Amino acid sequence: MSKQNGHMESKQTGDAEESHQHQAGNSTDRDIDQWKHKEPYKVHDTERNDNFDVKWEGSCHCGKVTYQLSRDKPLAAKYCHCTTCQRLHGAPFQWAAIFHKSDINFTNGVHELGWYDPTNKDTSHHLPCKVSCAYCRAPIMDEGRNMILLFPPLVKDINTKKAREAFRPTCHMFYPQRVAEFKGDGIVKWKGLDNASDLLDDDENVLVKWEDGLDEDKMKAKKREFLEFTEKEGEVKRVKKSDE
Ligand SMILES: [Zn+2]
Ligand SMILES: [Zn+2]
């Protein structure tokens, strides 16, 4: 499978880090109707106290598809500048927020969803796949094998300070393929997938070269030279200036 098509999930194995999706191989076939009963499509009966704590709500453009989210903030949020994302979204880049499949509850339109499998270029429900409203075609999320990558512009009140903070991107992926500039935004930039490619500065100079066989821990140690972390381990506070 070509590299171009093959970057949708990060190499990291942790659930929280399943980052991305138009990826090659290992598509899962599902029985034609099985999906309706499984997360993320399993509809919670909130009136019967189905234990779904609503923190955010979202809807597609036409309103046929609506959903709730039960998590205060995504596990991570990222900007992807790869050309596949640009083309599939008709946008300069993809903004994706990672959630567990159990974090979403479709309150309307679970049967109005359409799928697209970018690996095979067909509309079957093979994972990972893109999920959109079948009527207005608004992209809703990418469904990976373990996680969903939700598109925050559909979230109600996303243009508030609280939402911008909650959905703040932690990195740029495939930064050299960008069609807009982000110089000086203080957000970590990767040549490809996060933590599995070269770490770049704003001008695409390589700060940490990715080498085959480099594992996540080693990459994290190397990153430390260039990034400042918050007290909460793992969260990047800012990118140190190269000349510091
Ligand atoms: Zn719609
Ligand atoms: Zn992408």
From TrEMBL:
Alphabetized Pfam families for the sequence: GFA (PF04828)
MF-aspect GO terms: carbon-sulfur lyase activity; metal ion binding
Q: Which residues form the CENP-V/GFA domain?
A: 56-176
The signal peptide here is none
Cited Gene3D superfamilies: glutathione-dependent formaldehyde- activating enzyme (gfa) (3.90.1590.10)
Q: Does the keyword Zinc apply?
A: yes
Query: Which keywords does this Swiss-Prot/TrEMBL entry list?
Result: Lyase, Metal-binding, Zinc
Q: Where is the composition biased (Basic and acidic residues)?
A: 1-21, 28-41
Check the record and name the InterPro entries matching this protein.
CENP-V/GFA, Mss4-like_sf
The UniProt annotation puts the region (Disordered) at: 1-41
In the record, the note on similarity to other proteins reads: Belongs to the Gfa family.
| Protein name per the record | CENP-V/GFA domain-containing protein
